[in-house]
Specification:
The complex is a heterodimer of chains A (743) and B (357). Chain A has 743 residues and is mainly alpha-helical. Chain A has 32 helices and six strands. Chain A has a two-stranded antiparallel ribbon. A two-stranded antiparallel ribbon of chain A has the order 3-4. Chain A has a two-stranded antiparallel ribbon with strand order 5-6. In chain A, α10 runs parallel beside α15. Chain B has 357 residues and is an alpha+beta fold. Chain B has two domains: 225 residues, P-loop containing nucleotide triphosphate hydrolases (Rossmann fold); 111 residues, Nucleic acid-binding proteins (OB fold (Dihydrolipoamide Acetyltransferase, E2P)), CATH 2.40.50. In chain B, the strands form four sheets. A six-stranded mixed beta sheet of chain B has the order 6-7-8-3-9-10, with helices on both faces. Chain B has a five-stranded antiparallel beta sheet with strand order 13-12-11-14-20. In chain B, α2 crosses α3, α2 runs parallel beside α4 and α3 packs across α4. Chain B is elongated. Classes of the chains: A mainly alpha (743), B alpha+beta (357). Chains A and B meet through α27, α28 and α32 of A and β6 and α2 of B.
């Protein structure tokens, strides 16, 4: 067999060249007016800001670029295929590693105001210069150096000498550091900024021990408690209520012959496609001041119910409506996971149905119930949409963070402290959840089909389950219907004339005199932006997620557990925290992406990564490992094995990851509310602004359109990517036919 | 018959190759030479490290110590794709979403061959394994034995220097297993391939191998031809693993000209000393070498029949003797014995071997 031709693209030399071009030819910094084709050639530019790093160092006296250039020169011998592996590895590790360090160091050292740190100023003297955020050149140099570093590691024999795996791990680590760890740490460091005449310690203590956070005044009087207690009380009660409701639903669906079981299962899809304020709006339309119930009560009894819905009760109700389906989804799996043989064993041991349920079924479910409780707890903690719509003066952490940042106070120190507290609570819940799920081993889900039938429920339990679940299901449907009906009347509560005017205001299309379509409705801009950004983010999320899943399940390397844990940890960071962290970090150089589409896409990708990773891991563990190994021994590169064998067999997981990340990007609000700009406005933020202005009609109309849109999107992606059948199923089909014919 | 395949069989040499996962030593450092053009079996109980050793040769695992040469080239640090070896997996690992032809051509396309040329050669290789005309099928539309052949064709088409088999027959039923192992052996000899073959089935190993490497507890217990291992095991483990064997303790009374006189109660038997001095010794007795002596004759091992099982072609006997229990096959050339009969036993020296204790 002929030797494989040396390919340039993808080789180490390719990445060296990438870094070299990024340093020598292309503008290093971000260009204010975008990058033109002419501006690409940045060697010899008059304007230092538009010049490449090399030229800035040579012609404009910016000496801090020399280390970057020097590192690239150092790495060159390693990129050439001539030397032995170990010598190449040495050059690549030194050049790539130091190059990365040099790029990061120069980026962090000099900001828009000159030196970023006082000690640098005392060492090097006053700098009559500044620098803006990094641009194309810096990105190319960064990626080039990163890959050279990982190539060097692979040449040293790490990652079984596999360049692709090494590069993938490098990419994952770099993106976690840049887009999660760095922002979160930056935000937390804001806690320590001195305020007024207070020093670091005093300012921190002042913020941390604020009565508005920890106050317990509500116990004795009618004053509100601190936000920490508010949040805790809300999350605890929501989690408890939603878990109980979810259990009732799960028991009915799995253990009774209830005829509407299938319809009930549909409930589980709701939280995925519902924009976060639909429930809140529906509740306002029912129980608000001009809501249906209030009006009826006032007309009948002449009593003013007032605005009780705004506050703890309203938020609690809305969250229970929102998160019961989540608990339901988790608990279906739990109830189905209990092996019927254990219950049958209990019954043959002369236990009554009730006793079996109490002493066998329920104890077996406890870890699952705890898991569901914690999932809802975290969701409630991170929830922003419901409290902002219904909270009124009842502040919780997520809304307080929002007001600390956008309000008149602009107090980032306070936001950081609140976010820090939220992060700690979230992490505790997350760690607890991992511990609980880890103990789940005795919920007997084996590969073998268990003999036996699922037991029916004992009568009293059944009655309770139905009594709780059925009214709640009806209520949920009512809330949704009300919410959607609100889009079709002129002014809810005052003028019930049916109208389409809300849709017209939002989604009007006019024809310009020259025959062009004009999207003149107010919502078009945000809708297009949302779809565009969500559609851009979805494939990125899916690919990074699947790559991470593949690395975690298929590769063994030093630090794999650490990588897995830090990936999981990023999932526990609440959206509001990420939002604040992002604006704090990316407002200023070196990565100045606030106000661009990039920050929103990054936010979507790293918020939704868990979905991609989880569906990838689940699918990957069902795929025989020897399939990839066979491809590897058949001379396929790791990359080729991944693209020709693993990916085609993973289509369903890819579809899931794509759909979920797209839909979730469209409905998220907690993080993006901090990140939108006039140019990049998101649908959810547009809606919330309408809600704040009291323009419910338009907000609801928009929500309705979003729901329809997302259902279409799910259907469309499913259709487009398709479920390619595996050979197994194709083979099974003709074999099944004669059987059917005979019958 | 002209073969469409060229063979480039190479020697595999392991020098101190070992594999360690953290604290666990999966393969202790070992030396082994697999000559070109031979079929060598790695045999041992599960967990003995034989599959790990195979994967080390394949490059699917990397040795934590030692050096590995294929055809004289140091491949210790090379990834699997650059080693010029092919592997047939236990589960076959046929790609379920590709046709048989695409499966076989996969390696050729990976190596940079044009698709059309790859298909021509894949077709020719399918013919070698007797699957001409099956190219358009999906793997799931074939029987277990056919899938096995596709897996072999897929590995063969790359003309590897070494072909590796990881328990290739364990998914087949007993009859098919027998014919497939003959087929693999015939193909190996026809093409002169170097084959490393992992199995835990000693009958399979005896049937196909030029040489067998018996492994135990992550190290090599013994290397030899099937006959050497059966007739001259160097340990009780090898003896009992290679076929059925009785294990008893005895004493060498004297050694003279390489012949040891061994005492077993009243029985005296002369056996090759294998370098052993007088003293305690382990004795391995194959069941077919246990003979029932004529009634009333002296100088025998006194025994009582404790169990007799009629098996059709022969009867299996269990005897209680002063040196321990013995099991025998085919000792019923004479009249059948009943449980409780007191008899005298002697051994056919061909089936008895001394093993260092």
């Amino acid at each position: 067999m002929k030797a494989r031709p040396m390919r340039f693209a993808g080789s180490t030399l390719f990445f060296w060249t990438l870094a070299a071009i990024g340093t020598a030819l292309v503008p290093w910094h971000m260009q204010q007016d975008g990058l033109s084709a002419g501006g690409l050639m940045a060697l010899g530019q008059q304007d230092p800001e538009a010049a490449s790093a090399l030229w800035q160092a040579m012609a404009h006296g910016r000496f801090w670029f020399w280390p970057v250039v020097a590192c690239l020169v150092l790495a060159l011998p390693g990129a050439l295929p001539a030397a032995t592996a170990s010598r190449r590895a040495g050059f690549l590790l030194a050049g790539g590693g130091l190059g990365l360090a040099a790029i990061v160091a120069q980026g962090l050292a000099i900001g828009v105001m000159g030196w970023s740190f006082p000690w640098l100023e005392t060492t090097f003297g006053e700098l009559g210069d500044r620098q803006f955020g990094i641009g194309l050149g810096a990105c190319m140099a960064f990626i080039g150096c990163l890959v050279m570093l990982t190539d060097g590691l692979a040449l040293r024999g790490l990652f079984r000498g596999d360049r692709f795996v090494s590069g993938a791990v490098g990419l994952l680590v770099a993106s976690i550091v840049i887009f999660t760890a760095w922002p979160v740490l930056t935000m937390l460091s804001q806690m320590f900024t001195p305020r007024g005449d207070l020093g670091v310690g005093a300012a921190l203590a002042d913020r941390l021990f604020d009565r508005k956070i920890w106050g317990l005044a509500c116990l004795g009087s009618s004053v509100n408690c601190g936000v920490f207690w508010n949040t805790l009380a809300l999350a605890t009660s929501t989690a408890t209520a939603a878990t109980i409701l979810g259990l009732c639903f799960a028991l009915i669906v799995t253990r009774t012959a209830f005829p509407a079981k299938r319809a009930m299962r549909l409930l589980t899809v709701l939280p995925i496609i519902t924009p976060p304020f639909v429930i809140g709006l529906g509740l306002i339309l029912i129980f608000g001041r001009s809501g249906v119930v209030n009006q009826l009560v006032e007309a009948t009894f002449g009593v003013q119910l007032g605005r009780w819905i705004y506050g703890f009760d309203g938020v609690f109700l809305a969250q229970v409506f929102s998160f019961t389906p989540t608990a339901f989804l988790v608990l279906i799996g739990v109830v189905e996971g209990i092996s019927p043989t254990m219950e049958e064993a209990s019954q043959t041991l002369r236990a009554s149905k009730m006793r079996t349920f109490r002493s066998v079924t329920l104890p077996l479910m406890i870890p699952g119930l705890a898991n569901a409780w914690l999932v809802v707890f975290v969701e409630s903690l991170a929830d922003f949409g419901n409290p902002i719509v219904l909270g009124g003066s009842y502040g919780v952490l997520s809304t307080e963070i929002f007001f600390a940042v956008v309000g008149a106070q602009q107090d980032f120190g306070r936001a950081a402290v609140l976010a820090g507290i939220m992060l700690v609570v979230g992490l505790c819940a997350f760690l607890l959840q991992r511990a609980v799920v880890g103990r789940r081993s005795y919920v007997s889900v084996t590969g073998k089909g268990d003999a036996g039938l699922q037991q029916t429920l004992p009568r009293p339990v059944k009655i309770v389950a139905f009594a709780v679940a059925i009214p709640w299901a009806i209520l949920t449907v009512t809330v949704y219907c009300m919410a959607l009906a609100g889009a079709f009347v002129r002014v809810w509560g005052r003028d019930w004339t049916p109208t389409l005017s809300h849709f017209r205001r939002a989604f009007a299309i006019e024809w310009a005199p020259d025959g062009r379509m004009l999207f003149s409705g107010g919502a078009w801009h945000s809708l297009f932006t949302t779809i565009e950004l969500a559609a851009t983010a979805a494939p990125i999320t899916a690919s990074i997620g699947l790559l991470a899943a593949w690395v975690l399940t298929r590769q063994r390397f030093v630090g794999r557990t650490a990588l897995e844990f830090s990936l999981m940890l990023t999932f526990a960071v609440p959206g509001t925290v990420i939002g604040v962290a992002y604006i704090l970090t990316y407002n200023i150089p070196p990565l100045e992406i606030t106000g661009t589409a990039m920050i929103l896409i990054a936010c979507f990708v790293f918020r939704n990564l868990p979905v991609g990773v989880r569906s990838g891991v689940a699918a990957m563990s069902q795929l025989d490992k020897s399939l990839d190994e066979a491809a590897i021994t058949l001379r396929a590169s790791t990359f080729r094995a991944l693209t020709t064998i693993v990916l085609p067999l993973l289509k369903p997981a890819i579809v899931t990851a794509l759909v979920y990340s797209f839909v979730r990007a469209m409905t998220t609000v907690s993080a993006v509310i901090f990140l939108v700009s006039a140019e990049y406005e998101m649908a959810t933020v547009f809606i919330i602004n309408r809600v704040i202005n009291g323009d419910y009609g338009l907000a609801i109309a928009y929500c309705a359109v979003l729901i329809v849109l997302m259902m279409t999107a799910i259907g469309l992606i499913n259709l487009l990517v398709g479920r390619r059948k595996l050979g197994r199923r194709v083979a099974a089909a003709p074999a099944a036919l004669p059987v059917g014919g005979r019958a | 018959m002209t073969l469409p395949l060229q063979t480039r069989s190479a020697e595999v040499r392991l020098q101190g190759v070992g594999k360690r996962y953290g604290q666990i030593q999966a393969v202790k450092p070992l030396d082994l030479v697999i000559e070109g053009g031979t079929l060598v079996t790695l045999l041992g109980p599960s967990g003995c490290g034989k599959t790990t050793l195979l994967r080390l040769i394949a490059g699917l695992e990397q040795a934590t110590e030692g050096q590995l040469f294929i055809g004289g080239r140091d491949v210790t640090l090379l990834p699997a794709g650059e080693r010029n070896v092919s592997m047939v997996f236990q589960s076959y690992a046929l790609f379920p979403h590709m046709s048989v032809l695409d499966n076989v051509a996969y390696g050729l396309v990976s190596s940079g061959l044009r698709k059309r040329e790859a298909h021509v050669r894949a077709e020719a290789t399918l013919e070698v394994v007797g699957l001409k005309g099956f190219g358009t099928r999906l793997p799931s539309e074939m029987s277990g034995g056919q899938q096995q052949r596709v897996a072999v064709a897929r590995a063969l088409v790359l003309e590897p220097e070494v072909l590796l088999f990881d328990e290739p027959l364990s998914n087949l039923d007993a009859r098919l297993r027998r014919s497939m192992r003959e087929e693999i052996r015939a193909l190996q000899q026809r093409l002169g391939l170097t084959v490393v073959y992992v199995t835990h089935d000693q009958a399979e190993a005896l049937a196909v191998s030029d040489k067998i490497v018996v492994m135990r507890n992550a190290e090599i217990a013994q290397v030899g031809t099937p006959e050497e291992l059966y007739t001259q095991p160097n340990s009780v483990f090898v003896a009992t693993f290679m076929g059925e064997a009785n294990h008893i303790r005895g004493r060498i009374e004297a050694v003279e000209d390489g012949v040891a006189r061994v005492a077993l109660d009243a029985l005296r038997i002369d056996l090759p000393a294998r370098g052993m001095a007088p003293g305690e010794v382990d004795i391995v007795v194959r069941p077919e070498a246990v003979r029932i002596g004529p009634d009333g004759q002296g100088g025998m091992l006194p025994a009582t029949v404790s169990r007799a099982t009629y098996m059709g072609s022969h009867t299996e006997y269990y005897f209680a003797t002063p040196v321990g229990d013995l099991f025998s096959l085919g000792a019923d050339r004479l009249a059948r014995r009943m449980v409780g009969d007191a008899i005298g036993l002697h051994f056919d020296p061909e089936g008895v071997v001394l093993v260092r204790p």
